[in-house]
């Protein structure tokens, strides 16, 4: 499970492949590739097809990955194969289907569904546009679909994993030039590692309203509400049914030199017999030194994420990140976004239009000394009330990303995690962990 650095602008493929539009190729030179990306079979009514896909191969090496000394060397070969097709009928109807195969080999550990899902239907939905105005869309989407909102802190497709996240249900979108509002009721499907064996629940467990407002001069906003329900969740205080509501706002802007990304969220609801009251605040600031060689960008990210104050007070203060992207805190993240304070400076260099280097430092503390630490998915990992230590550890990261051409890219990443006092307290035979990966990706 790895995080891929943000692709350079030469990459024209979208994170969600169904968001790509190839209608402009109707007037281009009709090469085989252009016909593959856009073919119109009839004009009245208009019937068009588009095809695409991905092959991604990765070699990942982990050493003492769970901070346990002498756990030693482990490696795995990860491959992801994806093929999709879109069909447009007139201006109202669209069908999109995507098959995905995620395979893992070589690891001595039991296979995880984040790494292996031999064959599944990743997307299968029908769109219908109720609007007749050219500058407006009122789009109803029914079926299995991927989601990725904002910076991916709460709802993400989890592209860093070998197997991506998806949901099944209904989504209604209102789309204008600078405004998009989504309202949805969805079920997070249960993933199994075999062939077409994933299960869909009839009961929705993720619902909400997400707005995206683009203001050219003043910046951009996401204002949203998310509701989530889980029959069984675990925290330091125990296990139980969880019903959680999230209210949040995000502001971001990118200018020629400055970059801002500010986000805050508050959560309330019920966990068993406990009342939920949790919050998070994230700040990211960056500056591009355009006058210098390699156009270095120096950035600083700072997160405050609440943890439980007292397991006996009938209140739960642990933040739940719901469905976050796995690589928010590293390529092979070991700490999840709950009960956490982190300071994360990083430097990005662009030696050329195709090449990107990045160096990161991530310092992690527990927000509450009465709460433990969590997995990157947000699930509970290690209890913490037995230790008075706050400092968890430090992550050192180095990555390189090279865009060979518009279809092919290669990346390298190295991560070293130095354990802090808290991990030494709760893991008697603790050790620093190491991670290395190289990944080759082909998209068409």
UniProtKB/TrEMBL annotation:
Residues 50-434 form the Alginate export domain. It comes from the Bacteria. Pfam families: Alginate_exp. InterPro entries: Alginate_export_dom. This is Alginate export domain-containing protein.
């Amino acid at each position: 499970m790895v995080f891929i650095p943000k692709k350079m602008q030469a990459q024209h493929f979208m994170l969600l492949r169904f968001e790509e539009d190839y209608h402009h190729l109707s007037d281009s030179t009709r090469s085989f590739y252009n016909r593959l990306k856009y073919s119109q079979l009839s004009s009245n009514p208009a019937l068009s097809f588009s095809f695409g896909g991905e092959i991604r191969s990765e070699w990942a090496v982990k050493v003492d990955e769970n901070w346990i000394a002498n756990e030693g060397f482990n490696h795995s070969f990860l491959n992801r194969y994806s093929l999709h097709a879109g069909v447009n009928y007139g201006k109202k109807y669209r069908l999109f289907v995507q098959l995905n195969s995620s395979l893992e080999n070589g690891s001595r550990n039991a296979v995880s569904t984040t790494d292996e899902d031999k064959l599944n239907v990743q997307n299968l939905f029908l769109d219908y546009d109720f609007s007749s105005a050219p500058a407006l869309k009122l789009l109803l989407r029914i079926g299995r679909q991927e989601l990725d909102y904002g910076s991916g802190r709460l709802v993400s497709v989890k592209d860093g994993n070998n197997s991506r996240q998806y949901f099944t249900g209904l989504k209604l979108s209102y789309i204008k030039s600078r405004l998009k509002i989504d309202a949805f009721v969805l079920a997070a499907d249960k993933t199994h590692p075999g062939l077409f064996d994933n299960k869909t629940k009839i009961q929705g467990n993720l619902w909400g309203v997400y707005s995206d407002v683009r203001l050219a001069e003043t910046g951009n906003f996401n204002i949203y509400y998310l509701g989530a329900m889980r029959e069984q969740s675990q925290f330091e205080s125990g296990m139980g049914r969880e019903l959680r509501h999230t209210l949040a706002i995000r502001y971001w802007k990118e200018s020629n030199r400055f970059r801002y990304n500010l986000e805050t969220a508050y959560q309330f609801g019920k966990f068993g017999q406990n009342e939920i009251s949790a919050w998070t605040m994230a700040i990211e600031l960056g500056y591009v030194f355009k006058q210098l060689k390699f156009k270095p960008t120096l950035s600083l990210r700072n997160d405050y994420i609440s943890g439980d104050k007292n397991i006996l007070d009938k209140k739960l203060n642990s933040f739940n990140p719901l469905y976050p992207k796995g690589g928010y805190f590293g390529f092979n993240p070991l700490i999840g976004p709950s009960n956490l304070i982190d300071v994360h400076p990083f430097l990005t260099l662009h030696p050329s239009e195709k090449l990107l280097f990045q160096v990161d430092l991530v310092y992690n503390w527990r927000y509450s000394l009465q709460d433990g630490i969590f997995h990157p998915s947000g699930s509970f990992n290690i209890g913490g009330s037995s230790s008075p230590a706050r400092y968890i550890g430090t992550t050192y990261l180095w990555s390189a990303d090279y865009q060979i051409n518009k279809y092919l890219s290669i990346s390298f990443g190295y991560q070293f995690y130095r354990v802090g006092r808290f991990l030494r307290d709760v893991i008697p035979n603790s050790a620093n962990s190491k991670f290395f990966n190289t990944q080759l990706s082909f998209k068409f």
